[in-house]
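Subject: design request, 356 residues
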């Protein structure tokens, strides 16, 4: 079994730095009075500069690894104002010298100022097409852009894939409570999973994190009546009406919990009292799921003892390119209930005429 210790250290540093950036953008731009309703530019600026930060660090630490990133720099090459803002923000974070507390290294490209060309090139480094062979990273610099804008859940998501299999996943959730039992307590959680070596939660802040040991995550075994479904907030992202029918069929009594981003996978993996089942059946069958929206989250759940599959029990395929391989929906739950959940999902899909 490959340990991926160096990759894990680099990925944690990259996600932590990107979360520092997204938090600053939220506090300065989204929360500020300056934002006109419906203006998406803060999230664009945060997305692009967070991708610049993570890709710059990966590029220095692992120069030959390709990256499948959600964003690209095409818009920045057209828009000088946006471009200047992204370069400024990325540099605010990248130029901070390596932190001993966070066990960072100067060789990861930290502590230096980057030129416009270098920042744009780093963002475009995410253009890799993915595929079945070899090693690659996949990055979603802000997953849950809608959640980010409403001050809800969002996540910085990074995964290492080798020969189509997710080997390492790191997810930063700046707005997720560290302790699910204290929803109004300190927020900011970092989730790390390595294949065959378990799933862990760390505090996102290194200042706090240097004192608190990581928590090993194990999904509890809950019967359907004591758990709730974890669902997207956005109705366009998942067939929420279908979920409601499945929940009723299986005897689920609790209301569904809706949150944006792969924070749902984190809540499932650590067994938040509210969690238990991840269900994402397509609201629109034309939409194709991207690998960066599921790679680290699915490994996190599997390493915490759960199963992630499509509606027919097929494992998710991360080796088919930038999109997930052929599948129908995403279904996640603990090992003990996953099969029963699949049967319920298939029965309702049949009743709705969605299965051939
Ligand atoms: N019609 C659709 N169906 C399913 N997912 C969609 C979608 N349109 C966008 N998405 C994806 O849903 C992600 C958010 O997932 P969730 O609904 O779990 O919060 C988005 O990630 P980004 O916010 O990174 O763009 C986006 O990639
Ligand atoms: Mg996403
Ligand atoms: Mg995104
Ligand atoms: Mg997006």
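Subject: RE: design request

Done. Sequence follows.
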């Amino acid at each position: 079994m490959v340990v991926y210790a160096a990759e894990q250290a680099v990925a944690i540093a990259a996600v932590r730095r990107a979360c520092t950036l997204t938090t600053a953008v939220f506090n300065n731009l989204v929360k500020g009075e300056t934002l006109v309703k419906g203006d998406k530019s803060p999230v664009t600026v945060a997305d692009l500069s967070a991708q610049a930060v993570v890709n710059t660090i990966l590029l220095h630490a692992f120069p030959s690894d390709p990256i499948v990133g959600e964003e690209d720099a095409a818009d920045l090459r057209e828009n000088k104002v946006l471009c200047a803002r992204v370069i400024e923000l990325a540099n605010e974070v990248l130029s901070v010298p390596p932190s001993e507390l966070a066990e960072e290294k100067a060789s990861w490209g930290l502590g230096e100022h980057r030129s416009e060309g270098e920042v744009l090139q780093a963002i475009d480094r995410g253009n890799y097409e993915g595929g079945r062979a070899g090693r690659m990273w996949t990055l979603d610099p802000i997953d849950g852009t809608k959640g980010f804008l409403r001050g809800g859940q969002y996540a910085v998501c990074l995964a290492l894939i080798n020969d189509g299999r997710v080997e390492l996943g790191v997810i930063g959730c700046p707005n997720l409570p560290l302790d699910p039992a204290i929803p109004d307590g300190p927020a900011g959680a970092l989730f790390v999973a390595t294949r065959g070596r378990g799933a862990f939660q760390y505090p996102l802040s290194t200042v706090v994190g240097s004192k608190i040991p990581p928590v090993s995550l194990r999904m509890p075994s809950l019967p359907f009546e004591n758990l709730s479904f974890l669902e997207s907030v956005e109705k366009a992202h998942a067939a929420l009406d279908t979920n409601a029918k499945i929940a009723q069929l299986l005897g689920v009594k609790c209301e569904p919990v809706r949150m944006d981003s792969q924070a749902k996978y984190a809540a499932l993996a650590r067994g938040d009292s509210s969690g238990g089942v991840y269900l994402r059946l397509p609201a629109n069958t034309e939409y194709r799921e991207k690998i960066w929206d599921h790679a680290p989250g699915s490994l996190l759940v599997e390493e915490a003892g759960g199963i992630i599959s499509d509606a027919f029990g097929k494992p998710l395929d991360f080796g088919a390119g930038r999109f997930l391989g052929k599948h129908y929906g995403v279904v996640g739950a603990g090992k003990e209930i996953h099969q029963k959940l699949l049967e319920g999902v298939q029965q309702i899909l049949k009743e709705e005429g969605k299965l051939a």
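Residues 140, 143, 293 surround magnesium ion (ligand 2) (CB under 6 Å).
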